[in-house]
Amino acid sequence: ETGVTQTPRHLVMGMTNKKSLKCEQHLGHNAMYWYKQSAKKPLELMFVYSLEERVENNSVPSRFSPECPNSSHLFLHLHTLQPEDSALYLCASSQEGRRTGELFFGEGSRLTVL
Amino acid sequence: GDSVTQMEGPVTLSEEAFLTINCTYTATGYPSLFWYVQYPGEGLQLLLKATKADDKGSNKGFEATYRKETTSFHLEKGSVQVSDSAVYFCALRGGGANSKLTFGKGITLSVRP
Question: What's the rounded mean pLDDT across residues B50-59?
C-alpha cells in the first residue's frame, strides 16, 4: 500500500460536469496539499490543510473547491472547469511542526477538460 | 521571499556520462534542501535531502552537498543510466517550523543508451 493514494488516475470531463478528485494518505501526517502541474509551468501550490483546517489558498478560482474531512483524506471538487484547467493534480502530505519534514506525493490525477 | 533557481534544460546525456544539475537558492535563516524526481507518468518522489550546511545527501548514486557559502545544492551522479531519465526538482523548506516547500522549475533529463 503506497503512502499517498490518488483516484482517479485519469479523468476526462466536459466544462459543465461536476467531478471530484480524492486523495488518501496512510502515513499518519497532519498536513495535506493540492498542487497543479501544467506543461511548461512551475508547480503551483493550490491549497494547504493543516490539522484539517485550510491554512493556505493561493488565489485559486472558486471552480476548485477543496475538502478535508479528516487528516487522512483530501478532496478537490471540480465544477464548470475550463480547458486551461487541464493538468496533472498532485496531492501531498507531510508532518507539520518538523522543519525538515519533506512532502510525500501521490502519483497524481491527470485531468483533461474538453 | 524564498526562491530556488535551477539551470535551464532539457539535458540529454549518453549512458554512463557524468551528471551535474545546478541549483541555487535564496532564503532567510537555515533552510532544509531537497531534490525530488518525477519519472514519466508518476508523482514526485524525494530523491535526497540535506538539513544543514555541509551535509551531503545521497541516494541511488546521486549526491548533493549543502553549500551555504555559495547558496547551492547541485545534484551529481558519476554514471547515469537510461532509467534516470526523469524530471528533477530542487526545493527548499525555510527556517520556520511551519514554512512551506518552495520548488524550482524542474529540469528534464534524458539519457540515451
Answer: 95
- The string of DSSP letters for A35-48 reads EEE-TTS--EEEEE
* Of the candidates B94, B75, B87, the residue with the CA atom closest to the CA atom of residue B111: B87
> Residue type at A57?
N
The separation between the first and the last C-alpha atoms of chain A, rounded to the nearest angstrom, is 33
Contact A97 B101 (CB under 8 A): no
| Residue B34 near residue B46, CB atoms below 8 Å | yes
How many Cβ atoms from other residues are within 10 Å of residue B90's Cβ? 28
**A60-86 pLDDT tens trace:** 999 999 999 999 999 999 999 999 999
Between CA A3 and CA A1 the distance in angstroms is: 7
Q: A84 CB near a chain B CB, below 8 Å?
A: no
Q: What is the dihedral of CA B78, B80, B81, B86, to 10 degrees?
A: 140
Q: Is residue A100 within 8 angstroms of chain B, CB to CB?
A: yes
CA distance linking residue B83 with residue A105, whole number of Å: 20
Chain-chain contact of B93 with A108 (C-beta, under 8 angstroms): no
